Amino acid sequence: MAVSAWSLDPKRRRRYLQIAFGIAALVVAVCVLFLLRDFLGAFVIGAAIAFLIQPAVIRLHAAGVPRVLAIVVVFFAIIVALAGLVLLIVPLGVNEVSQLQVQAPSLAAAAQDRLNGLQPVRVFGIDIDLKGITATVSPSCSRSTRRPCGAYSAASSRTTIAPTSIRSGARCARCFTPTSVVN
After folding, report:
1. pLDDT tens per residue across span 10-30
2. Residues 64, 66, 71, CA angle at the centre, nearest 5°?
């Protein structure tokens, strides 16, 4: 004799239906959030901005400034502060990148020297000889120029790209940079 779920007492049946509807609602909510994931970021950022500027707007409004004008003043102050940060940070970043470009060859040579000085390491019973790995990296790479595609050309700092090579069409197959050089 089988007992169906509908023959249970009403309290137990109600509890099962609540659990089933709760799970179904959770599945639907997850599906809706998944489908709206591209748009939800804007709503979250908007809510965060509204939450963060609320105290400043309330204080300005309490001081007698109309609410709309208080919001405009707070947003203008935020934009000015962000622009000031950008004006301070961008020149520092440009300066640091230019210094890195100057120091990169010496840093690469120092790193290569340190790698060449490493002793073999035993990890989990496996001998790892980093000298063999670094031997595949040519020491001439620090004197050569690197193309945007990652390939090294044989050009040293004394060579320049000939203007005629650009017109002749001799280019790297990977990044299309001119490959002919004049010593």
Report:
1. 888 889 999 999 999 999 999
2. 115
